[in-house]
Amino acid sequence: MSYQGKKNIPKITSDRLLIKGGRIVNDDQSFNADIYMEDGIIKQIGDNLIVPGGVKTIETGGKMVIPGGIDIHTHFQMPYRGTTTVDDFAQGSKAALAGGTTMIVDHVIPDPGCSLMAAYDLWRQWADGTTCCDYSLHVDITHWNDSVKQEVDNLIKEKGVNSFQVYMAYKDYYQMSNSELYEIFSFLAERGGIAEVHAENGEIIAEEQARMLQMGITGPEGHVLSRPEELEAEAVFRAITIASQTNCPLYVTRVMSKSAADIISQARKKGNVVFGEPITASLGTDGTHYWSKNWAKAASFVTSPPLSPDPTTPDYLNTLLSSGDLSVTGSAHCTFSVAQKAIGKDDFTQIPEGVNGVEERMTVIWDKAVTTGKMDENMFVAVTSTNAAKILNLYPRKGRIAVGSDADLVVWDTDSIRTITAKTHNSAAEYNVFEGMELRGGPHVVICQGKIVLEDGNLHIISGAGRFIPCSPFPDFAYKRIKARKQLAVLRAVPRGMYDGPVSEFSMSRGGTPSASARTSPTKQPSRNLHQSGFSLAGPPTPDDIPIRPAGRRIVVPPGGRSNITSLS
Amino acid sequence: MSDCRKQWNREDELPVYLAGPITTGQNQRKSYGMFSSVEGAFESKTLDFDNYAVGGKGSRTPRNGSRERVLDAGDPIGKTSSVAREGSLTDSPGETGDVQPGVEVRYSSEKESSNGQSQRLLIKGGRVVNDDQSLYADVYIEDGLIKQVGENLVVPEGFKVIEANGLMVIPGGIDANTCLMKSYLGTQPADDFLHGTKAALAGGTTMIIDHVTPEPGESLLEAFECWQEAADKKACCDYSLHVDIPQWNEIVKDELELLVQEKGINSFQVYMAYKGVYQMSDSQLFEAFSFLKQLGAVVLVHAENGDVIAQEQKKILGMGITGPEGHPLSRPEELEAEAVFRAITLGNRVNCPVYITKVMSKSAADTIAQARRKGSIVFGEPITASLVTDGSHYWSKNWAKAAAYVTSPPLSPDPTTPDHLNTLLACGDLQVVGSAHCAYSTSQKAVGKDDFTQIPEGTNGVEERMGFVWDKAVAMGKMDENQFVAVTSTNAAKIFNLYPRKGRIAVGSDGDIVIWDPNSAKTITAKLQQSASEYNIFEGLECRGGPVLVLSRGQVVYEEGKLQVQQGTGRFIPRKHFPDYAYQRIKIRNQAKSKQGVTRGLYDGPVYDVIPTPKYITPSPSARTSPTSHQPAPIRNLHQSNFSLSGSQMDDSIPRRSGHRIVAPPGGRSNITSLG
Q1: Which domain holds residue B184?
Q2: Which family is it part of (chain A) (predicted)?
């Protein structure tokens, strides 16, 4: 680290920054260039930059410089039955920065029946002034009616929210019926929002939970036993079907199992606009720990959908992530203390759900996907940052190293090796689900809004530095195809002559569909005359077809003869 | 094969239908001790009867006294109903004489004709085709049962001889899906049990399994009895019944139990479509599946996502599309695939066999094929319509024609669908061919002339079923003749526990036999069909392969285009629960899959105090009770010691992060919850 120029004014150093000798890695290409940034914005990229004096310079020594990570799924300070998760926005975003993530997107979860707008304001209030990095918000739709519809509309238009999560699980609480999903998806498609879905079949889960408890299984293993992965796959399939019907882009949060990932990848092959988000935990570890004899350890892995007990799952998900079938990675960071988890010590259904992962996310992916040769460094940037920015419609402001983009950068050290442990992590949780894992790759320097926040292993963070970044609707990444399909998929009726044959009398009406009375006699129709002519190309009803008709059920020839529209031969 | 042998070797556990005679129908079945007289014959299945041939070759089919005669001249009963007679009259196409391979019928001796019962039949010179093998053999039938199969049979005097002339002799078809009494808005379909079974026999199908469709709120038992009564009066071939479950509640449960235990029903259909009428929620489906599994029944599923369909229908009507094209537009095939996937998931969770009725689209069929590959016990039933034609006709300008194709799930507009389904049928991914025959007249269909959602749903197909499977799959080289028998007859018999009484040509089986001519060709037209509906959705299609002669319980009912049937001769065939074909694996999986909890020491760390609102509605023992209150004392003591192997921790010096520290419980930490 050295300072150019004569004046060493510490204040300036944070505003003007030069990164020298790095290899810039974007999602599309890698190249060697220097980066100059000022006031939190990247101003110049290239060799031999002409920069003002008094600039702090970071010598990277050929290390990778990548766009800061975007963790698209966190639950900081999430309220749960009168308590909140142990990582609030300050603690959580600190952990994020320590792991190379410079932006987080948190979920606003209003209680069913409560106003979405009020919940949004509450979350903004919590986050503004405490978050150390830029953030944005998803809003979860936990119930559906016309006033919610109005609020969603306002959130999209005025509040900078473009993604809304719905739940297919948590029966009688958050769960939406298929009809509601259909309406929500239709509405979001119209307004340019992204439909995010927590995909699990809540009804079957409720049945399975009751069965497990009845069998006397009350420990955390009951969690995974009552939520087998096919229920996740089923719900993913259903969500994709409904989204495809409504022509709405779909985002599946927390892809935890092979079969769910397979369904997404198949659907993408068929052309559906669907994005899958594996989380740090599903990419880094598996569900065998639910059977741990240590209750507290087993409980710390409880999240929904659960981690798959199949130990080959992380490898498989990393493969699909590398091939592009899964698009983004989140962490679903939602940490509870052991005492909080112990609410469910006698009943696994009461264990608060959530695992850590915001700090480990980038490193886990580097270790599991890039060092194993599954993924290249550009894809690494895409899945940790760029794709998320595109879906949120923040690209190229975020997720790219380019002139004009935000100065959120990470100098990535591909060779560092770190052992994950709860003793040294930045989260406030007592357990780390990646405890003891040795992971290669990690951030060397983290720059957030043009300021160095991590250097030489030391965090220099300023609480409240984070800004809310509004997201605009109709992100091209998701909506370009949707728009084109909307124009194509116009359904047309077949223009036919009126059916004027005999109509069977019926007594009562059945079915819930809006039914135009089918009993009106054809003579009442004004257009009837066009067809009432006795002229028929087919000629008079031929006598030879009389014996063919089995007795009793013959069509009575209507008075005035048959029209050929309904001729039956 | 193995399971049938197992059944037959243990006399005491014979299926109920073989243990005693059934008294419905005009010909009593007598048990001649057939199991002892040809003991061991079952091992060689059909071949070696020489051991029993006392008289040797001398007694081979005496021909001297035989003479050709028109069969129904010998019909002594004379009770043939006028309707049936009319059917047989109007249907002779006139070209009876020039079907070239031909089948001759004659009597072995003259005196037998006076007996008149024509109970003894010998089919000579045919190739017997079962689902596992084909062989040249003669078949001797007496009293409606197959008594001998083999060459050089020794048979009593006085029987009718049918010369098959090398044609295939196959087990009569079983149509596992018909709806001959499914009323719509109070009107009955054009084809009742008489027309429907006549059409079935004319097509080579000798047994149908009809759907009992009670309205929501109606008693299943009463509906069943109503169906049985109607069918007993009218049906011309053997039949059995599925019962549809229109809703789920406690009363239904009792009725189901009764139906399974006493009425001989082992298959029930549930609906995932028809929102607000028949549709069940996932929870109800789960309960229904669990309950039916306990009863040992097969769950039939009408798989379509009714919620989304209701939305789509609203949308399509809102766009001003009211014609039949709105039907497929509002029921796109992925809704079918989605529901199939969900039904299979439910079946896997409950560990229950699932039978998907009416597989109409490629994606639904693919979903079934994939699930089978993963080991799910699921059966798929494409129907005649989906195997032959496609949904492009919904856009026909002729409203009546377009409406004739309306069925649910709809025919796929993708014209490659029939080919794909035939391929999957040939390779065994789909198992059974039904017809879903539910023919409404055009005036009935016209109830929905201004609103496609009101069009009664159903297509014809019971008569064309076998012919088209032959034409589309066997004649195309996709399928061999044995698989043809399997999908048209044997698999259905196995799934619904009728095997080997039905679905096989073997000693002891029912005399339901079809002589099949692979080379005959005919053009399908509504003018020449048995069905009473005015439209045939296969109108104008040419079909290779067809029955030349059909035997139903040992009686010739169809020959060279002529039907000789008598209404009310069909018997109800009761079916036992727990069919091996579906339930053998289920039973073993039940044993293998018992789950066990982890035995842990009790968690005795601090517990966060929660506010009382329960988060889930699941039955929850209060989580607020302090750990000391309900501990089984003896276990607890093992862990209460303060002794800890780990001693002081390395990180004891490092302060825990502020705010959320675990307070060490009074009495010290136990190592079960140690956090290091």
Answers
A1: 170-589
A2: Belongs to the metallo-dependent hydrolases superfamily. Hydantoinase/dihydropyrimidinase family.
In a domain, B341, yes or no: yes
**CA nearest neighbour of B180 among B626, B481, B532, B431:** B532
Chain A, nearest residue to B371 by Cα: A230
**Helices B282-295 and B250-258, packing angle to 10 deg:** 30
CB atoms A231 and B621 under 8 Å = no
Per the domain annotation, does A179 fall within a domain? yes
Which chain B positions have a beta carbon within 8 Å of A178's beta carbon? 305, 307-308
Count of domains in chain A? Answer: 1
HSE of B412 in the Cβ direction (CA atoms, 13 Å)? 26
* Structural domains in chain B (count): 1
**Partner-chain residue, chosen from B532, B623, B675, that has the shortest CB–CB distance to A430:** B675
Q: Which residues of A279-293 are buried (b: 16+ CB within 10 A; e: fewer)?
A: bbbbbbbbbebbbbe
pLDDT score recorded for residue A533: 46
Query: Between chains, do B276 and A219 touch, taking CB under 8 Å as contact?
Result: no
| Chain A hits for B312, Cβ within 8 Å | 245
User: Which residues of A are less than 8 Å from B279 in CB distance?
Assistant: none
Nearest by CB to residue A182, choosing from B87, B307, B527, is: B307
With vertex at residue B80, the alpha carbon angle to CA B79 and CA B82, rounded to the nearest 5 degrees, is 115
- Please provide the average confidence, as pLDDT, over all residues in chain B: 79
Residue A501 lies in a domain: no
Phi, psi of A140 (to 5 degrees): -90, 135
Which residues, other chains included, contact B628 with Cβ-Cβ below 8 Å and sequence gap of 6+? none
Closest Cβ–Cβ partner in A506, A550, A565 for B447:
A506
Compute the distance between CA of residue B551 and CA of residue B595 in angstroms, rounded to an integer. Answer: 51
CA distances, A201 to each of A112, A214, A442, B371, B559 (Å): 19, 20, 37, 18, 54
Q: Which residues of B touch A342 (CB under 8 A)?
A: 603, 605-608
Spell out which residues of chain A touch residue B595, defining contact as CB-CB under 8 Å: 212, 215, 217, 225
**Which pLDDT band, with edges at 50, 70 and 90, does B58 fall under?**
very low
**Is residue B125 domain-resident?**
no
The domain that holds A363 is classified in CATH as 3.20.20.140
A45 in any annotated domain: no
> Do B399 and A499 count as a contact with CB atoms less than 8 A apart?
yes
Q: Cα–Cα distance between A250 and A246 in angstroms, integer?
A: 10
Residue in chain A lying closest to B329 (CA): A491
Residue B491 above 50 pLDDT? Answer: yes
What's the pLDDT band for A179 if we cut at 50, 70, 90?
very high
Question: Is B185's CB within 8 Å of A507's CB?
Answer: yes
**Residue B64, domain member (yes or no):** no
**Sign of the C-alpha dihedral computed for residues A520, A526, A530 and A534 taken in this order:** positive
Q: Assess whether pLDDT exceeds 80 at residue A133.
A: yes
Q: How confident is the model at residue B46 (pLDDT cuts 50, 70, 90)?
A: very low
Cβ distance A210 to B349 less than 8 Å, yes or no, reads no
Q: At a CB cut-off of 8 Å and minimum separation 6, what does B647 contact?
A: none
Nearest to A343 among B450, B595, B610 (CB): B610
Domain that holds residue A477: 65-488
**Chain A neighbors of B528, CB-CB under 8 A:** 548
Give the closest residue to B231 by CA, choosing from B252, B211, B257.
B211
Instruction: Please report whether residue A17 resides in a domain.
Output: no
Quick check: helix, strand or coil at residue A236?
helix
Residue B565 burial (CB count, 10 A): 28
Q: Give me the residue from B195, B308, B443 closest to A501, CB to CB.
A: B443
The answer to the question of residue B385 being in a domain is yes
Amino acid at B91: D
User: Residues of A with CB below 8 A from B617's CB?
Assistant: 171-173, 206
* pLDDT higher at B39 or B595: B595
Q: What is the CATH number of the domain that holds B274?
A: 3.20.20.140
Q: Check whether A78 has a pLDDT greater than 60.
A: yes
